[in-house]
Amino acid sequence: MSTGSKFLEKLNAGIRRASVPNGAVLIVAFSGGPDSSALLAGLSQLRDRWSFALVGVHVNHKIRPGTSDRDQLAAQQIAGQLGVDFTAITVEVPLVAKKNNVSIESAARQLRYEALSRIASQRSAHGVVTGHTRDDQAETVLLHAGRGAGLKGIAGMRARSTLRIPDSNIEVTVLRPMLGISKLECVKFCDQSGIQPVADESNNSREYTRNRIRLDVLPQLNQAIPGSSEALARLAENAADDLAIVDWTVSRSLEQASAGPAFGAGSGHYSRPDVVSLPRTLIARVLMRAYEDYVGHSQDLERSHIVSMVDHVTGRSGTSIDLPNGVTFIVDRDSFGFRSGTEDDCPYPNPFALTELKVPGTTRLGDGFSMTAEVVDRPATLDPENPWITFASPTITQLSPRLRNRRNGDRFQPLGMEPQVKLQDYFVGAGVPERWRDRVPIVESDRGIVWVAGSRLAEWAKVRPDHKRVARLELTRPDSRTPGRSPSQQGGS
């Protein structure tokens, strides 16, 4: 079998591994170098077999004045030689790197994928195909290992993955069908195909970390342990297989914790009891995934953050910690979750001054909240199945009912309980998060606390068997939407 036939056979197998369908529109990231030129040439030879529509996209990074435009022209000529549509996009990497105080490598990668994603969207493409090779995979594994990465880092690049670009809504499907092909095979295939790829002199610069690994570390490692590059690529495959099992277990665990209308990835809240019973290492994985689901990526999330999240979720409730990307991790009695800096998960209005409760009538509490009070005929059932509504003894209307927030020393006897308790102790037992407690509306009267809104009526204020009429209290919003999760949805009584 010829070199070209072997290359095409491996590329064809890589296309299958990447789950690329017949008839797909593919955006090929095309620098004009040996790897991307071999990729574009191979795909052009396989396009009839797969009914592909190919678009070669060259991203001019403007990193090397004088040669970037030359390379763009050479890439255009190669695409023309192969009969492939060609598009060039210019991005100002040095300017963006300086403005955002990031490395040239980081800025180039982000701008490149943003540009490729836009073209993919415009062309309704199945995905973006890159020329990453087996050697690139070995470099990636070694780079991640040197940084102390976990299983995900050691697994390296996948034949197919979804790339989410931070600080944007951009998602792009990235296809890497050449992870089983070496750079040397790419060079040989270009020679056989009559293609003269461009030489990017920046690849020989030791200014970049990845280049130093390619030029210095891997050659020394291959000399000390022959076949190390191939072995590192196999290590990535083995790690990816193990990671698939871990991911499956994490997905199942997070799905279990998401059960119920008050929880789930969309809400940013999960059931705490369903997670704390898991092994600590699995808890860490579940919390990492939950964070990623909430933010859209896990960049900047370090091991210290993960350890702290596990400590909090397995510790006492009512705690919170700040995480990267403006996110706060919150642990309540029966749930945990995330919120952004400007996001308010409290179902109560901001603290308000002592206010007379209008009966009958509606008392405004600010922030769009109000308390409605009226005396009505006794309903067939006194359980409204809505924590924001309660039915109380009509006698409360004669005891100067009023609204306020909690005070030090507050005590009351919750419905169905014998002794009086401190309101603070009740909040703890009912699972009312500490950050909510100063905002809970409390209905009181000359006889004491009547109702802790959204939570519990006082024993003395309950409806008696001889009551034909009852007081109905409801905490509402103007649009009648339920104001967030109540303490009963937190797991309180």
CATH topology of the largest domain: Rossmann fold
CATH class of the largest domain: Alpha Beta
- The unreliable regions are 480-484
CATH superfamily of the largest domain: HUPs
β-strand amount? 15-25%
| Number of separate structural domains | 3
Major β-sheet annotation: 6 strands, mixed
Distance between the termini: 74 Å
Roughly what is the average pLDDT, rounded to an integer? 88
Can you give the helix content as a percent range? 25-40%
Query: In what order do the strands lie side by side in the largest sheet?
Result: 3-2-1-4-6-5
- Label the overall shape: elongated
Q: Which architecture name of the largest domain does CATH use?
A: 3-Layer(aba) Sandwich
Classify the secondary structure makeup into a structural class: alpha+beta
Output the radius of gyration: 31 Å
Helix count, per DSSP?
15
Quantity of strands, as a count: 21
Write up what this structure looks like:
- The chain is built from 15 helices and 21 strands.
- The protein is an alpha+beta fold.
- The chain has three domains: 3-236, Rossmann fold; 258-340, Uridine Diphospho-n-acetylenolpyruvylglucosamine Reductase, domain 3 (2-Layer Sandwich); 355-490, no CATH class.
- The strands form five sheets. The protein has a six-stranded mixed sheet with strand order 3-2-1-4-6-5, sandwiched between helices. Strands 11-15-18-19-20 form a five-stranded antiparallel sheet, with no helix packed on it.
- β8 (319-323) and β9 form a beta hairpin.
- The radius of gyration is 31 Å and the shape is elongated.
- 37% of the residues are buried.
